[in-house]
C-alpha cells in the first residue's frame, strides 16, 4: 500500500524547465554560441544540460564559468516575471494530503527554490524538500530518492515518485520506487517507456496512484 509520495519539482509542481533552458540559451547567445534545443534535451537525460554543447565545441572554460552566473541571473529574472503555475496542482495536493505524506526531491538550487516558493503555498503540503545541496550525486543516480525514503523512514514499496523527465525516471527506477510520469511538453521527446504509469495532467494523479494497488 502506498503511503508516501516523492515529487520531482521542476516540470511537475511548477513549469520551470523551459525557462531554465531559455536562461542558458540566452547566456550562451551573449558570447556567440547557439545552443541546439534537441541536443540539450538529449544531454538532459544524462544529468547534463546547459554547458555540454559549449564544452564539446571548445568554448573556453573561463567564459563558461562567467556565463554560469549570467545564466543564473536570467533564470531568476524569469522566475520573477513569467507564469510558472501548473493547472490543478494545489487542488490535487489538497486531495492527496488526506491520504499520503509528501515530500519534494529536486535538483533546484536552494536560492532558486526559495524564490519560486516565496509567494506560493505548495510547501504547506510537504513534510520536507531536498534540493541540490542536500545530496552528493544528482539524478539519474538513485541517491536523491533514496534520501527521500530515509527522511520518511519508508520502504521503496510504500512510496511512489512523480516525475516528468527521463533523468528523474531513471533515478526512481534505480531506487526501486514506482514512478508515475506526468506529461510535459518540454520533455515529451524523452524515453519514458519504463514508467509504472503515465498521466496527461497533474489532476489525474489520485486515480493513477490508487491504480497502483489494484
Would you kindly provide a brief summary of this structure?
The protein is of the alpha/beta class. The chain contains nine helices and six strands.
Can you describe this structure?
- This protein is α/β, with parallel strands linked by helices and 214 residues long.
- Strands 3-2-1-4-5-6 form a 6-stranded parallel beta sheet, with helices on both faces.
- The chain has helices at residues 17-29, 37-44, 52-56, 61-81, 89-96, 110-116, 143-152, 166-174, 205-211, and strands at residues 4-7, 101-105, 128-130, 159-163, 178-182, 197-199.
- The longest helix is centred in the first third of the chain and has 21 residues, at 61-81.
- Helix 8 links the parallel strand 4 and strand 5 (178-182).
- Helix 1 (17-29) crosses helix 4 (61-81).
- It has 9 helices and 6 strands; from the N terminus they run βαααααβαβαβαββα.
Largest sheet report: 6 strands, parallel
Give the helix level as a range of percent.
40-55%
Computed Rg: 17 Å
Spatial arrangement of strands, main beta sheet: 3-2-1-4-5-6
Mean pLDDT across all amino acids: 95
Helices and strands, in order, run as EHHHHHEHEHEHEEH
Uncertain stretches:
none
**Span between termini:** 10 Å
Count of strand segments: 6
- Count the DSSP helices: 9
Computed structural class: alpha/beta
Hey, roughly how much beta strand do the residues contain? 5-15%
Shape: globular
Task: Pick out its properties.
12% strand; 9 helices; 214 residues; globular; 41% helix; alpha/beta; single chain
Amino acid at each position: 500500500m502506498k503511503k508516501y509520495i516523492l515529487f520531482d519539482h521542476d516540470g511537475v509542481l511548477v513549469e520551470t524547465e523551459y525557462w531554465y533552458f531559455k536562461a542558458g540559451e540566452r547566456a550562451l547567445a551573449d558570447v556567440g554560441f547557439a545552443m541546439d534545443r534537441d541536443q540539450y534535451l538529449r544531454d538532459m537525460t544524462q544529468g547534463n544540460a546547459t554547458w555540454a554543447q559549449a564544452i564539446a565545441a571548445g568554448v573556453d572554460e573561463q567564459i563558461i564559468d562567467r556565463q554560469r552566473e549570467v545564466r543564473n541571473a536570467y533564470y531568476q529574472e524569469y522566475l520573477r516575471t513569467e507564469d510558472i503555475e501548473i493547472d490543478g496542482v494545489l487542488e490535487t495536493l489538497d486531495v492527496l494530503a488526506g491520504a499520503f505524506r509528501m515530500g519534494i526531491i529536486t535538483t533546484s538550487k536552494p536560492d532558486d527554490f526559495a524564490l519560486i516558493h516565496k509567494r506560493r503555498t505548495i510547501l504547506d503540503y510537504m513534510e520536507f524538500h531536498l534540493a541540490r545541496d542536500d545530496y552528493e550525486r544528482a539524478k539519474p543516480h538513485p541517491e536523491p530518492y533514496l534520501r527521500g525514503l530515509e527522511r520518511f523512514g519508508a520502504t521503496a514499496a510504500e512510496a511512489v515518485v512523480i516525475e516528468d523527465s527521463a533523468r528523474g525516471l531513471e533515478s526512481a527506477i534505480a531506487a526501486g520506487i514506482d514512478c508515475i510520469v506526468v506529461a510535459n511538453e518540454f520533455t515529451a521527446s524523452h524515453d519514458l517507456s519504463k514508467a509504472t504509469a503515465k498521466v496527461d495532467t497533474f489532476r489525474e494523479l489520485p486515480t493513477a496512484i490508487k491504480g497502483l494497488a489494484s
